[in-house]
Amino acid sequence: MMRAIWDFISSLKNSFRLLMACVVFFLVGSVYAMNNYEFIDSMNSFTIQEWMMSQGAARPGITWWLYPLILSLFLLGVNTFCCSLNRLAQIWALRNSLGRRTFLLRISPSMVHCFFLLVMFGHVLTSALGEWESHPLAEGGQVKLGSGEILTVSYISHAYYGDDTLMNGRIARTSVLLRDLSGTEIPIEYLKPGSYGGYELFLNMVKERKRDFLAQARIQEAASEKDSCNKERDYKTDNQGGQRLMLLAIKDRGLPLITTGFIFILGIMTWYFIELGRAGKEEEPRNQQE
Length: 290
Description:
Layout: H1 2-9, H2 12-35, H3 37-41, H4 48-54, H5 60-63, H6 66-93, H7 100-129, E1 131-136, E2 142-144, E3 150-160, E4 171-179, E5 185-189, E6 194-196, E7 199-205, E8 207-209, E9 233-235, E10 245-251, H8 255-289
Antiparallel strand pairs: 1-10, 2-3, 3-4, 4-5, 6-7, 7-10, 8-9
Helix pairs in contact: 2-6, 6-7, 7-8
């Protein structure tokens, strides 16, 4: 009985079925995300369980696909783990009869599966235990992180495109300097985040619908009735009214596992294909002699 259950859980046919189920639910979810972009995008500001209880539960007609997707991913992870154990046990039993290179070549795909599970677990940690904070920035102001640390905004500097470009008057680069209570400086720019107290610190701009920048009145365009991700947006700055520069403080607890897993996967697969090529070249002279 237990053997039959184990064979069912570790079945490659079930691997294919679960993979296809994930693909289907991802495709369905992408359609809902395109047509309800603002709502789905709010998921990035919560842990998955917080969002599903507060936002997702309020609109089940839009989020129904997420529950079977999570279940399919979980079952795929269990299936991959069981398949990998089966394969590792079979190869390990033959380790004395196989040469070292053959043993490593045969075990490499299973090791890739194991590190793939590590990557999946890292994504679970990120989704369930990650922290995302958003704080407005004003020169001379302070930012209090969720862990209690206080950062002072020493200065905010904007560099603009020149009058000889089509982007004249728009921001080319923004630099922000933060200081903690001990005087430690944390410089931040777009695409150049800083690190502090376990947080990754990013700059962001609050986005509003694009306006006709040639018009003096700058009248807001009517909101589109259809909510989609294909919205043109204009990054607002202080001189356009209101403080819009934001600090994103993120604690991604799963990132070390995700990064480690991908590094080992790339390393193992690179070695695997190089050695596989060498083994094939060594077999050619033998085949010709025969």
